[in-house]
Structure to design on (106 residues):
């Protein structure tokens, strides 16, 4: 069964800023997530940012992360991509934290 993948608007911007080879890696991983949404590792509290309910998965030789959450986890219907970014200095977690605050999820 394939699950629906949605990008929040800021994650669309993240994706568009990637170069071609990184996009290919991201596309491949997203295709894998469509059939197995639990490929990623669960996130909890990272750098005082509550990311409970979110998952991370590495792409492009572990240089980038995709951070996503599963909507209605008891009956998975949608995976929502919240960000794609470099692993350096855990920047992606801070970005997701800002996006969560903007969406009023905290």
């Amino acid at each position: 069964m394939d699950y629906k993948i949605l990008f929040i608007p800021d994650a669309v911007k993240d994706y568009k800023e990637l170069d071609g080879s990184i996009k290919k890696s991201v596309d491949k991983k997203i295709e894998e997530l469509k059939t197995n949404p639990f490929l990623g590792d669960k996130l909890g509290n990272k750098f005082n940012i509550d990311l409970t309910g979110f998952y991370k998965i590495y792409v492009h030789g572990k240089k980038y992360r995709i951070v996503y959450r599963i909507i209605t986890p008891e009956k998975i219907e949608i995976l929502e991509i919240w960000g794609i970014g470099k692993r350096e200095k855990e920047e992606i977690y801070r970005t997701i934290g800002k996006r969560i605050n903007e969406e009023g999820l905290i």
